[in-house]
Amino acid sequence: MKPAPFSYAKARSLEHAVELLEQSDGEARVLAGGQSLIAALNLRLSSPRLLVDINGLAELGVIASDGDTVAFGAMVRQAAAERSPIVIERAPLIAQALSHVAHPAIRNRGTIGGSIALADPAAELPACLVALDGDVEIAGPSGRRRVAAEDFFKGLYETDLAPGEVLGAVHVPAATEASRYGFGEFARRKGDYALAGLCGAARASGRTLHDVRLVYFGVGLKPVRARKAEAEIEGGPIEEGRVRKAISALADDLDPPEDIQASSALRRHLAGILLERVARQFSESRS
Ligand SMILES: Cc1cc2nc3c(=O)[nH]c(=O)nc-3n(C[C@H](O)[C@H](O)[C@H](O)COP(=O)(O)OP(=O)(O)OC[C@H]3O[C@@H](n4cnc5c(N)ncnc54)[C@H](O)[C@@H]3O)c2cc1C
């Protein structure tokens, strides 16, 4: 199929992009890497009157770290982030997760901001952002604002972004010696969206873990924090008994959907295995 007719405008700045969106009364879409948007247009799942292309905005293509945080401009390509020494060193969970996002050809065009703005419930990056307690920087008609990742994802492909707003950057706390991370996912084939996945983050003091965050993807309408399982891991070392209790707690934390890919029971089972794997990664020191 071919897309419905649309107009095209190349934004000259972030403010110009906001202006263009504002003028089109919710009938425009931002064009980033186009890996999801162009397919949606071709299938006529989306028929905007105007595409606002933000590919020329150099200011959105930068990865930077001030020591405490790592900032990703919205137009940073997923492949560039995956290979960035800053990301590998200071946001290793994101580097690890990116290697599971689609295929290299898609990651060459797909952007960090596009994945976060799309908010696919089976996508890796939204769950990582919540696990890392990161936030999202948004530019709109009344200026810039920042929203915690946990408040940004509202529902199925639904975020806090209003029609006239552009996601400008995402920020995550930089890793320290005490940071512990874990990541795992099950997909039918490498590069497919996950049937179930888990991003974990914690802070170690000796063998004791604090600030444990376990965020699943592919098991709900948006990234899902497994709060009861987190509580079972919080405040102690990783030991088999604690991990068993955390896996049992998933019965309260998760209510996975059933679809043609997997039953709810299979997703629950996979969620338990993922927790075991992530717990094991938590107990390994950073090298
Ligand atoms: C075959 C295939 C397999 C895939 N597998 C995976 C996978 O396993 N995991 C995964 O996470 N993703 C997967 N994807 C999606 C891919 O990672 C895309 O990169 C991502 O969905 C969107 O990024 P993009 O830059 O291409 O955004 P686009 O397609 O350009 O935009 C996506 C949506 O976000 C909006 N948007 C984009 N940027 C902004 C912004 N800065 N501000 C406001 N709105 C914005 C657009 O208007 C549009 O609605 C897959 C895609 C394909 C085609």
Briefly say what this structure is.
With 287 residues, the protein is of the alpha+beta class. It contains twelve helices and 14 strands.
Helical proportion?
25-40%
Radius of gyration: 19 Å
Q: What structural category arises from helix and sheet content?
A: alpha+beta
Calculate the terminal CA-CA distance, rounded to whole Å. Answer: 50 Å
The general outline is: globular
Mean pLDDT: 96
Tally of alpha and pi helices: 12
Number of strands: 14
| Percent strand | 25-35%
Unreliable parts: none
Secondary-structure element series: EHEHEEEHHHHHHEEHEEEEEEEHHH
Hetero groups in this structure are:
flavin-adenine dinucleotide
Specify the biggest β-sheet: 5 strands, antiparallel
Side by side, the strands of the main sheet go: 4-5-10-6-7
What does this entry look like structurally?
By secondary structure, the chain is of the alpha+beta class. It is built from twelve helices and 14 strands. Strands 4-5-10-6-7 form a five-stranded antiparallel sheet, with helices on both faces. Helix 2 links the parallel strand 2 (28-31) and strand 3. The protein is globular. The structure holds flavin-adenine dinucleotide. The site of flavin-adenine dinucleotide (FAD) has 30 residues, from strand 2, helix 2, helix 7, helix 8 and strand 10.
